[in-house]
Amino acid sequence: MHLTDGAHLPVVVVGGGQAGLATSRHLMAQGLDHLVLEADRVGSEWRNRRWDSFCLVTPNWQCRLPAFPYDGPDPDGFMVRDEIVDYLEAFKRSYDVPLIEGVRATRLEHGFRIATTAGTITADQVVVATGPYQRPRIPRIAERLTVPQLHSSQYKNPDQLPPGEIVVIGTGQSGCQIAEDLHLAGRTVHLATGSAPRVARFYRGLDVVAWLERMGYYRKGIDEFDDVDSVRFRVNHYVTGRDGGRDIDLRKFALEGMRLYGRLIDADQQVLRFADDLAQNLDHADAVSEGIKDTIDAYISAEGIDAPSEPRYQPVWQPSQTPESLSLQGISAVIWSTGFRRDDSWIHVPVFDGRGYPTHRRGVTSVPGLYFIGLPWQHTWGSGRFGGVADDARYVVDRITEQRAGVHWIAGKHRTVA
């Protein structure tokens, strides 16, 4: 497809990842003419910002784009990067998504005038499906370092890094998995920990994700929590789907030679300095994991489920003292696994709060006709993932259809427009 300068469409979807594709499928089901703009290619985030050994941390059976569930040979396995891209490409082909690749939206103005790298179009309604992982977040402290540095989105494999020891900053999902990747390749890894929690891969006969699915956790809406902001912006639990799935146990890595530190707090050209919170960070991660097991135990008991018993986790290593600093002599690279920030600077419509986060309820903003899709915890845990984005897309498209029929939804309430 090609973009026609000056064209007007009923709906334009900006972003061709899983959120944009799911939205397109529901728009097609409603018979709504629309266009999907993708700055790169379908699945570009998976293609370009994931390392070579990357795989999902949720089982394949949770991949359920609209009317297109995973149907491969390993539903309990974890698709690797290229298989994820293939899944998205197959979805695009199956439904002949009206997609234009290689065209970036550069400005969205009130009245829904959309400037792009291929011309300007207008729309009655716009869905922003650009995802949460847009601009790498690297702290300013990085400017003090003279060793080679890269963000986790630039990491591909151990061989791309020069010989020597590697520092990984951050213990979210990416940081822990990259540290593991380097560790398994025989590299000496120094890992600066943070407050990210962990979760067990399996417990009492099932993947923990399967237990949480049975318990209804993934259907729980954000408005059912007392601490909405805390839930919406919390760091993901670290675990891996590598080699069929397993825990990531930083204590075990320490026994095997990985060097663990507390939170990075200062640096200069020669030295990194850390907080005295390594033991606290490890204990917190373990406590969260064991707390999840508590809820599973309670569910099994309440439902009378015949599940095998399993001994609880016992820490295999304790820090005898917390290293307060690390000389950068002999360090060949620093990897910043410090997350991403949204980049909505191209959107010139007043829908953002004081932190720059889009204000919405289930993706419906206070500006009639403007929607978001694919935000973390937009409505449920799965909102930004393969497991729940289809439900969010259906909800948004239902609101689009209602507005075209004269019903406006604002902040979760609706009114009929004469």
From TrEMBL:
Q: Which organism is it from?
A: Kribbella kalugense
Secretion signal, residue range per the UniProt entry: none
Identify the NCBIfam families for this entry: MSMEG_0569_nitr
Q: Does the keyword Cell membrane apply?
A: no
Q: Name one Pfam family in it.
A: Pyr_redox_3
Q: What are the entry keywords?
A: Oxidoreductase
Q: Name one GO molecular function term.
A: monooxygenase activity
Q: Which Gene3D superfamilies match?
A: FAD/NAD(P)-binding domain
Protein's recorded name: Putative flavoprotein involved in K+ transport
Keyword Oxidoreductase on entry: yes
> What lineage, starting at the top, does this entry show?
Bacteria, Bacillati, Actinomycetota, Actinomycetes, Propionibacteriales
